[in-house]
Design a protein that fits this description.
- This protein is an alpha+beta fold and about 400 residues long.
- The protein folds into two domains: about 190 residues, no CATH class; about 180 residues, no CATH class.
- Helices cover about 50% and strands about 15% of the residues.
- Strands 1, 3, 4, 5, 6, 7, 8, 10 and 11 form a nine-stranded mixed sheet that branches. It has a two-stranded antiparallel sheet with strand order 2-9. The chain has a two-stranded antiparallel sheet with strand order 12-13.
- A hairpin with a 5-residue loop joins strand 6 and strand 7.
- Helix 1 crosses helix 10.
- It is elongated, with a radius of gyration of 32 Å.
- The mean pLDDT is about 80.
């Protein structure tokens, strides 16, 4: 009986019910949309990093610190035998990291110089979703060129270099002697992983080892996905995927407070709408409440009636979200959201067309959270009814 009365009351309220349901559904939609964007950013950054840089994980020289260029001079040694076996099986490849200076168009620019095997096929720096040839292969078969060089599109913009352009590369070898040779840009790759692009040049690892007098040495070894951890890697440190993407996770976590504030504001707007509607109902429907109580309906059942109306508001808002906003969420999940700028220059790995991810857990959590908030703000105003005098209510007077 309570359900029928609550449903009749909501239908009778018309505009007020529609506005409450609409505001709640908008909050539902925005929370799902923004949460989906954050999940999409996290998934995109993780997958892009795996596809273009880390694959299954890496083994680092114990002195290697990727954010400390001063450590590069000491972070190289012979590759452990166990890792060498993986390399021979083409399940891993070495990278040699060093500092260098380049002189494009008469300007000096410090860079990180990385040597990589051109034939490796474990990572594709332009992403595995591209049909293009792995850009590292563009470094192969150039014996007539002193130093074949691979750079990213952002690096090309900063240096104003094009394919075929030459420039001087100057470096410090293992014997503390400076040397310089001419590098030639063989390919400019379009990678969405800014860590492979900005401030970095890539050359064949054999060439890097000869230039630096570090024969058969490397800084770290990247291995393929699905490879078990090597037990005897010497003093080299194992870095799994979770460790290597921790900086990305930290950047997204740092932005969460702003996201949570927005959620709180949206929930407050929803709660205020339902709360005001319930308080208004108590004052405007005093005679109705008094009649129900005079006919024998207990105070607890009257409170339950108003709480049930709030629950129906939440249910109707869920249906409205599915019908009106569901196609919008589906469209963005399929086509993505074009972003107005390139965030790679800000040190963020965000796609130019962001694909939101709406997980079952996200949808259920959001639905339950909004349902609980609506129930609470429907129940507390209704508690006034427990102190209401039925005689005064019939006269239209609300007293506590």
């Amino acid at each position: 009986m309570l359900f029928k009365i609550a449903l009749k009351n909501l239908i009778g309220a018309r505009l007020r019910t529609f506005l409450n349901v609409f505001v709640t559904s908008i909050s539902f939609f925005v929370i799902l949309f923004i949460s989906g964007m954050y999940d999409g950013m996290r998934q995109y950054a993780k997958q892009t990093t795996i596809d273009t840089e880390i694959a299954g994980g890496s083994y680092w020289h114990p002195n290697y610190d990727p954010i400390d260029p001063m450590s590069f001079e000491k972070s190289h040694s012979k590759i452990p035998i166990a890792l060498k076996k993986l390399i021979n099986l083409k399940e891993a490849f070495p990278i040699l990291v060093s500092q260098a200076s380049i002189y494009p168009n008469g300007r000096m620019m410090p860079v990180t110089m990385k040597g990589i095997p051109p034939e490796q096929s474990i990572i594709n720096m332009e992403g595995n979703n591209t049909d293009k040839v792995n850009p590292t292969k563009m470094l192969a078969n150039h014996d007539e060129i002193e130093i074949p060089v691979l750079i990213g599109s952002e690096m090309a913009k900063k240096t104003q270099l094009k394919e075929g352009d030459t420039f001087i590369i100057r470096w410090l070898d293992s014997e503390k002697a400076y040397d310089a040779m001419e590098g030639t840009v063989m390919h400019i790759m379009n990678t969405e992983n800014f860590k492979l692009d900005i401030g970095t040049i890539w050359i064949p690892i054999k060439k890097a080892q000869n230039m630096l007098n570090m024969e058969n040495e490397a800084t770290y070894v990247t291995y393929n996905e699905g490879i078990e951890k090597v037990k005897s890697s010497g003093d080299w440190l194992h870095r799994d995927v979770n460790y290597l993407i921790s900086d990305i996770e930290a950047a997204i976590e740092a932005d969460k407070p702003g996201n949570q504030i927005l959620f709180f504001i949206l929930l407050c707007l929803t709660a205020m709408g339902i709360f005001n509607a319930q308080v208004l109902s108590i004052f405007r429907r005093g005679k109705e409440i008094g009649t129900l109580m005079a006919l024998g309906m207990t105070r607890s059942r009257v409170v339950g009636l108003f709480t049930l109306e709030g629950a129906l508001n939440s249910f109707l808002a869920t249906i409205m979200t599915v019908i009106f906003f569901g196609p919008i969420l589906w469209y963005f999940a399929e086509k993505g959201i074009p972003l107005p700028m390139d965030y790679s220059e800000m040190g963020l790995m965000i796609a130019k067309r962001l694909i939101p991810v709406y997980s079952i857990g996200l949808i259920l959590t959001t639905t339950i959270l909004i349902g609980i908030v609506v129930l609470l703000v429907s129940y507390f105003p209704s508690r006034r009814i427990s102190n209401m005098n039925p005689t005064d209510a019939l006269r239209g007077k609300i007293t506590t």
